[in-house]
Amino acid sequence: MKKKLLYFLTVGISLISATTVSAQTDVFAVWGLGGTNAAGTVNPTTFVSPDVAAEMVLAGGLRIFSNSTQNAGGAVTPSGDNSNWQRIAMPNPANTANPTLYWEDTAPDNNGKHSAASYMEYNMQATAAGKWLQISGISIPVIGFGTGDVRMIAKYSVDGITFRDFYKSGTYWVKTGETTGEAQAVSLTEASPSPAKRNNTTDGGSTTLAAVTITFTNLQINVEPGKKFYVRLYPYMRGTEPSSSGSRGIQIRGDITLSGKTSDAALPTDVPLPLDFLSFTAKADALGKSVNLNWRTTNEVNTQEFIIEKRTDLTAFTAIGKTPSNNTTGIHNYNFTDNNATKGNAYYRLKQVDNDGEFDYSDIVTVNIKTGISLSVFPNPTDGVLNIAHALATKGSVKVLSLEGKNLVTQAVTEGSTSTSLDISNLSTGTYLVVYDSAGQQSTLKFIKK
After folding, report:
1. What is the annotated signal peptide range for this record (predicted)?
2. Is the pTM of this model over 0.70?
């Protein structure tokens, strides 16, 4: 959010200054066919340009199989024929000879569901200190194999924590008839997962390698120095539970490629921000019993809610409440009250959640509620003079406030004194607050005016 806004500031400074030029270098990472399933983390034949590092990760039980061997661990030797394509699937506990993919019972609709823990990951980062990376293109040639309806979704991340749907459509094979199909725009999202073209000639007939390659072009995704870019492909099965007699999985048909640039500063980006935080503040009430949080936003797009989180010096962040977002254009004001204020330091942040389940965090704001200094009042209730006993005064004041926080009486304390008297005879009958403030420390008590 605010961090991302700094990207535009950095870019603006670079463009305005005639003497500042960001050195840019084209970079790429290519994963060729090859490798084995060693412990689920693999590095097939990988070619990278200077100044970047890259790796492939398989998670959630996915492993590499050779096309000619159903047993996990078969080596793949690139030669261009069908027997050397790389298969990615997970061992089938019902039949070790037939690999499978993640499947989840979603009856009665049987639309299936991906697992966030079962994915193929390709990542890349700039290795030189201080270098930014911008990803511009992604290419993954893939088809499904075996029986059943194989679906795929794709997400990306620039920090390895928050994975988002791609903000631009990709292209992939779409079946248009029993023997016809073509490359079309696809979103590869949970709401619109793409069917993997099954086998080379079925599901729309034979086609070119380019048409069955998931392709994203003209991207402008910035990655901060020291961080990685991640793209994950989540394959899964749709429909009723797959039988143990058939094989199913993902088949890599050729080189997988990530391409982009490295630079000394953030490059212009067209990645849309789901929301901008204009302000976020936290303030304790006069009694130190509650903390009022206020925040202001604009450009809300695809937003669902704000989850308010809190921690202390001794605890981790936990959710203490939530409020729905307006999810409309314009400027919006929100507030939330923490009625369980904590003495000492308390830290607050907002977890902004999108409609697709993705999220981001606001900056952190801090409130310090002092443990207070010794204070007593008498008589209480009173109808004329209120006597306040306090610690040895240095420099400060005594105030009387309404319960709404309106200042009604203010009197300076005498330096070196331990008590102060206030004439409150003009106040109406009711309950008030007396606030003693000395050397930046406050203590508050309630009293009753008869």
Report:
1. 1-23
2. no
